[in-house]
Amino acid sequence: MAIVSRGFRGRREADPRLPPGQYLERGFPVLSAGPTPRTDLSTWTFSIGGAAGPRATWSWAELTALPADDVVVDIHCVTKWTKLDTSWRGVSLDRLLDAVEVADDEQYALAHCDGGYTTNVPLADLRGGRAWIAYQYDGAPLPPEHGGPARLLIPHLYFWKSAKWIRRVDLLTDDQWGFWEKLGYHQYGDPWKEQRYWGD
């Protein structure tokens, strides 16, 4: 049986950037499935790999030394809040994926995080300037409660896909559901199509 929450109630406002069923949030709610991990940056790494193991790994110093993007994006939580014009800094997945060999039949990705959380996404959604490993929010280091030291940022999908405490992305030939997807959340999660839960 699926275990899902239909979300919080909030005030709906008329704004063309609000997807259907969303309300405008001016704060930044903290929602997590478990305790907040605390990571030692001297041992932190991020990897891109696959079934055979890591293909490329970056230390914290190596990742943050890469050319970074400053992006301003709207974010949409499955619990129905939307926060507009959020400011992030991070390394594009395009740049990181360019460092590894990707097979033609690897069309899916599974993100792995501290705390055991996983989420799935088509590989195409990590490319084309649409996804980042974000390590700053609003001009400051990303706080642990919001996924720091680094989180996946995929703003065109519901925010549970922007996995907190990211450590690895595996490239796969088949789509493997992640933590919330197995518990009833939609496999893809397009906020403009209200793809919140199984059957949406």
TrEMBL record:
Residues 1-20 are annotated as: Disordered. It holds the Pfam family Oxidored_molyb. SUPFAM superfamilies: Oxidoreductase molybdopterin-binding domain. CDD domains: arch_bact_SO_family_Moco. Gene3D superfamilies: Oxidoreductase, molybdopterin-binding domain (3.90.420.10). InterPro entries: OxRdtase_Mopterin-bd_dom, OxRdtase_Mopterin-bd_sf. Residues 34-180 form the Oxidoreductase molybdopterin-binding domain. This is Molybdopterin-binding protein.
